[in-house]
UniProtKB/TrEMBL annotation:
Superkingdom: Eukaryota
Protein name listed in UniProt: Zn(2)-C6 fungal-type domain-containing protein
Gene3D superfamilies assigned to the protein according to its UniProt record, in alphabetical order: Zn(2)-C6 fungal-type DNA-binding domain
Cellular compartments annotated: Nucleus
Keywords: DNA-binding, Membrane, Metal-binding, Nucleus, Transcription, Transcription regulation, Transmembrane, Transmembrane helix
Upper classification of the organism: Eukaryota, Fungi, Dikarya, Ascomycota, Pezizomycotina
Single GO term (MF): zinc ion binding
Keyword Iron-sulfur set for record: no
Annotated GO CC locations: nucleus
Transmembrane regions: 337-356, 405-428
Domain Zn(2)-C6 fungal-type: 6-38
GO BP term (any one): DNA-templated transcription
Any single Pfam family the record assigns to this protein: Fungal_trans
Main subcellular location of this protein, as a coarse class: nucleus
UniProt source species: Phialophora macrospora
Length: 520
């Protein structure tokens, strides 16, 4: 590893690190009287401290979890790097559980609960280029750390730590395709949040208050994805008395010693917060999933469906139109967030926006293929536009340093977008559109292949697309019809889908591979 040019605290807050002398703390850490990793490095030989500071009131189980990290973990400097990789590639793109500067201080001091450290490393080790992992396939590097985290998880302890560990484990098991296990871990986290009354639990600092708020809203969001993915009711419902999160750069600059506790007001929000925008979009996703579930049980889309789509479409458009200028999907904003160290989170917001839109309008692709109604064509075009928007922001993300996104859900949303491009390839009569769709499919395949080197669940993504491709080859009239098979394909993202049931198909007309734009 090359020597760092900034201490951990300054890297976490994405600001320049000013050092006045070798071995001395940087200006930021010295002014706030916090441990500086540059100072810690002069007293460390790369091993973990013999014992972490333990509070007199700490329980015996907590002492076991917080004691010095054992030899089955990488050396301390590498562990610090692995937690930084977790914050770079995992945290804030799908959940927000920690205050990065404070958590990094705990890692350096050796006071981080072991269950959390193992959980984070289980997700981030795949991204390391350190020789420590050279002989281990990136896709399975995290497995032993996830197993240890699961062993350390104490279900009898109702606490924020248990909640955070359960979310980390849920995020890990879904990478192995274990959707039911993911739902169980997230349910544990949700129950802890409810038992603690997490948004209103007494706290002593602004950092604690905001971490609790962000963890609560993160659970509300992942609960939607997870519950819809396995077809069970939600465990946690949004509450109007919980404020929205603060803007991210403000949050990262907080110090855990700050005691100023502002009184939250009902639905208080910061419109500039990326997490706040994710929360608003997630509420729309839940309604879209229910609407598509009803559509799958109907023979054709009725008037009620059209009215519901119109209402949700207006909510999506209102969301975008109400955004501050600095949050809109532009090249300049993407570059600005990259400079702030928030590029992946900005991209994640728009992956959600474009994906939820393509899901909302997806049922109209079937009608667009065979009906010449104005409504079908209008909403099918909006579906294609959202699919293209999703592809384009991913292309820009991977071509902009500091914006690359590698979390697992990228694979799922890109597969759905690719099926919309496949629709263009099959049914469009415009040669320009056909060439563009074929080009996007090729680029999407490259991205999915890249993601597959990190995540086992990408194997499922490829299998799902292959089954969809097979259905298009066999069944012209029903390849895009919203039925139970299609509903599973769109929402049960961790499960392989079987072959379309011929009993549900209206007309069996085969497509050739050449018509699909693929070679045998």
């Amino acid at each position: 590893m090359r020597p760092p040019t900034a201490c951990v605290a300054c890297r976490s807050r994405r600001r320049k690190c000013e050092v006045t002398a070798h071995g001395a703390p940087c200006v930021y850490c010295k002014n706030r009287n916090v441990d500086c990793s540059f100072t810690s490095a002069t007293h460390s030989n790369g091993a973990w401290p013999n014992r972490s500071p333990i509070s007199p009131t700490t329980t015996e189980f907590e002492q076991t979890r917080c004691q010095s990290i054992t030899s089955d973990l990488p050396p301390q400097p590498l562990c610090v790097e692995l937690v930084e990789l977790y914050f770079r590639y995992i945290h804030d793109t799908f959940h927000s559980l920690f205050h990065p500067p404070s958590l990094m201080q705990d890692v350096i001091r050796g006071t981080i609960p072991r269950v959390l450290l193992y959980g984070m490393i289980s997700l981030s080790a795949r991204f390391s280029s350190d020789s420590f992992f050279a002989a281990v396939d990136p896709r399975v590097r995290g497995r032993r750390y996830a197993q240890e985290a699961e062993h350390l998880l104490n279900l009898r302890e109702v606490s924020l730590t248990t909640l955070q560990a359960a979310v980390l484990l849920g995020a890990y098991v879904i990478t192995e395709g274990e959707a039911a296990a993911e739902a169980v871990f997230y349910s544990v986290a949700c129950r802890n949040a409810l038992l603690l009354d997490l948004p209103h639990i007494p706290v002593t600092s602004r950092v604690e208050q905001e971490v609790n708020c962000r963890a609560w809203w993160s659970l509300c969001m992942v609960d939607v994805w997870s519950s819809r993915g396995v077809g069970i009711p939600r465990s946690l419902m949004p509450r109007s008395d919980v404020p929205y999160p603060m803007e991210e750069t403000v949050f990262h600059q907080l110090c855990r010693q700050e005691r100023d506790l502002p009184s939250p007001t009902s639905m208080q929000e910061s419109s500039a917060s990326l997490l706040t925008q994710m929360i608003k979009l997630n509420a729309i996703l839940f309604e879209v999933s229910l609407l598509n579930e009803r559509a799958a049980s109907e023979f054709q889309l009725g008037v009620d469906h059209g009215a519901a789509v119109e209402a949700l479409s207006a909510r999506l458009e209102d969301w975008y139109n109400s955004l501050p200028v600095g949050l809109q999907d532009t090249h300049a904003n993407l570059s600005r967030y990259a400079a702030l160290g928030l590029g992946p989170m900005f991209v994640a917001v728009y992956l959600g926006y474009y994906h939820y839109g393509q899901l909302l309008y997806y049922p109209y692709l079937h009608g667009d293929s065979y009906d010449d109604t104005v409504q079908a064509r209008y909403y099918a075009d909006k579906c294609k536009a959202h699919s293209i928007g999703l592809c384009e922001i991913l292309y820009r993300a991977y071509s902009t340093a500091g914006c690359e996104v590698y979390y697992t859900m990228v694979g799922h949303v890109l597969v759905i977008a690719s099926t919309v491009q496949l629709h263009i390839l099959l049914f469009s009569s415009d040669e320009v559109q056909i060439r563009a769709a074929r080009s996007r499919l090729e680029r999407n395949f490259e991205i999915l292949t890249r993601l597959q080197t990190f995540w086992p669940t990408l194997d499922v993504c490829f299998t799902r697309f292959r089954e969809f491709h097979k259905a298009c080859q066999k069944y012209k009239e029903t390849s895009f019809r919203m039925d139970r098979w299609m509903l599973q394909f769109l929402f049960e993202f961790a499960k392989p889908v079987g072959e379309k049931n011929p009993d549900d198909l209206a007309e069996l007309i085969p497509w050739s591979l050449q018509e699909l734009g693929f070679t045998p």
